[in-house]
## 1
Amino acid sequence: MRASIIPIRTGKTYTVTQAARRAGTTPQNVRRWLLGYEAPGHRMKPVFGRRPRDEGAPALSFLELAELIVVARFRQRSGRRISLDRLRAAHAFARERLQIPYPFASGRLKAEGGHIMHEFEEGHPGQGKIAIDVGGLYALPIDFSDTLDLFDFDEMDGLAVRFYPHGRETPVIVDPDHASGSPSIVGSNVRVEIIIGRWKAGESIAELEDDFEIPASTIEAVLRAA
């Protein structure tokens, strides 16, 4: 029963630096989006609305990381015109509408997100689109949807269970149930960093293939992605 895996996905696994690397953003952004930000004349609430600032040194769960990845990739590509305040409000709306704590890490948002975000926009007009009209049907912006396509979702709770950071055609996953949540090679618990480190140290692909019993073509694909 996959519901028993939930603690693995909600346990605090990733440091801020690790999360920033996985999401392709900066540690400063991770801290601000997770905890909010206060300075003279400026205050920003947490984007995901769950973390008190007095919690201490932050660490992220896999599901928090998944939401961070979705927002970071969307903003880097086509979502810069959408403010963090607006994304925060959209996240809160989707959380309430779907009745799940991690809506941006949900397969339901992938399936129903266009309709839900259109409802949000009707009640919260503002700059930038989080829902687009495709021939009379509403869909999520392509960069938002494409990022969700890089996740597999649990059949029971609908939340993310693994992430393909370089696309599904590359045999690398981030899965909290494998390699302690570090990027690993699909079908094994071998961490990508181990393959890269030994290759950089001078070991050949043939040696790595023999040692780890991983096909040379897989190792080559991992090295190209890295």
## 2
Amino acid sequence: MDTKDGQVPEEKSDKPKTFDEDYVHGLNKENAKWRTNVRDLEKQVETLTQFKTDAENSKKTEVERLTEEKTRLEREIVDRDTAQTVLAIKTEVRLQAQKKGIIDPDAAYALVDLTQIEYEDGKVTGVDKALNNLIKDKPYLSGENKPQPPTPGVGGEAIGSTGKPSLEGEMLRALKGQFK
């Protein structure tokens, strides 16, 4: 059976094709060579990418580098100024609180209205007024208005001859606790 161009068509068969062992080994060697080439090319791409990045960074002008450095340093200065301001205010509040006889200067700093205090040119102002307002709001901080301990036998508590609450009082308190 000839076709128009003079070639004989291949017969289709269900039988699998087989290849010579040398031919298969040759294909495996060629495949290994291509895999090695791909790995080498991947390394070259990585090297070239790094080279490109380095080249772009080196293109930055000295002005750009100095501008970035200036921005970083300005940020550091602002952070240090803020920390210095907070420390100065905290120190002044605690010092003035001690002078005013406030029993807990740390609590005074935590409770004082910091919006009344200003820090300018290394000086802290408004602390005295802020602490006076704090003492008005929370007089117990000044230590002057200390609460008095309860007087035995006063306030509805019956005290027996032993100096302890009576058994009746304890029982009444226990029963009241059950019915609440």
## 3
Amino acid sequence: MKPTALAAAFLALLLMSTPSARAQPSPAQTAAVAPSERQLELARQLVNASGIDATMTTAFRTMAQQMSASAGAGLSPERQARLKVFSDAEGDALAKLVPKLEQSMEAGYAQTFTEKELSDMLAFYRSPSGRSMVSKTPQFMQGLTAEMISLAPQMRRDIGTEVCAKITCTAAQRAAYFGPAAANGGPAGASPAPQPPAP
């Protein structure tokens, strides 16, 4: 899996792991009643109290570091250095998206939940358990990131098994899913480590 693909998969999983991901309004909801000013304000407070900005920023940068270390195994020092530059740049670019993601979350919360629901959620985040969750979430996401990276080769093989059961995969497709040995019909071995873009 190339770094950009892994970043997209990680971002999707990160958003799915937060309540705000499920707060995104459907087109029908958006066309319905607009949220009140109180809902919008509670939504802003809720996003701020959840600490999602620090969580996502830390997670994106951790992802870049762990991916660089994993993909760089066996590469020459020069290629490792180039991969680190690329991964760090990707982490920086993703981190810059956080403010926009926060705005989307605020809109989603305000459009989806009532004032009482937003007040109740905000009360939780301000409680001892809520504050503990906020402080521990970055550590949780670091572990989740490492797990996703370690699962990437198996995920690629599983996807390849499903795809190639439905279509006749080309040699290039088999190599991408199962490794070079499988390109010409050989056994499906461990997938190669993610490689950096060609210099």
